[in-house]
């Protein structure tokens, strides 16, 4: 890969998702849920960090492995958003955009993985 990870659209979208999650976690309902709040923040940051780290190996097999970790973190974030609704920590309306964005990122990661697999 000759591109910098910062140029990947999926990386840029993952930063948007992280921003959405960090804003949502400022909701007072999450104040007492430190473990929950910490976990979802770590999971969302993991998405972009794994894209960045994997790209630096200059090895498609390694990069694919890190992109798969990013996909897993996307699912973790989505699961925690769903749970936050069920625990009445936030409204469903608050989580629609981040859930949709996490699905979009996950799909983009899948396409990126398939592209890289064809180049291994």
TrEMBL record:
Transmembrane segments: none annotated. Keywords: Ribonucleoprotein, Ribosomal protein. The keyword Ribonucleoprotein applies. CDD domains: 23S_rRNA_IVP_like. It holds the Pfam family 23S_rRNA_IVP. One of its GO terms (cellular component) is ribosome. The keyword Ribonucleoprotein applies. PANTHER family: FOUR HELIX BUNDLE PROTEIN (PTHR38471). This is 30S ribosomal protein S23. The lineage of its organism: Bacteria, Pseudomonadati, Bacteroidota, Flavobacteriia, Flavobacteriales.
């Amino acid at each position: 890969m000759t591109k910098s990870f910062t140029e990947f659209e999926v990386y840029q979208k993952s930063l948007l998702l992280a921003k959405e999650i960090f804003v949502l976690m400022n909701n007072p309902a999450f104040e007492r849920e430190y473990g929950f709040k910490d976990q979802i923040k770590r999971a969302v940051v993991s998405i972009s960090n794994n894209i960045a780290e994997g790209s630096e190996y200059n090895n498609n097999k390694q990069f694919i492995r890190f992109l798969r970790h990013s996909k897993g973190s996307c699912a973790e974030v989505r699961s925690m958003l769903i749970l936050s609704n069920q625990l009445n920590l936030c409204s469903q309306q608050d989580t629609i955009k981040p859930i949709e964005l996490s699905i979009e990122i996950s799909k983009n990661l899948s396409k990126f993985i398939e592209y890289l697999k064809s180049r291994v």
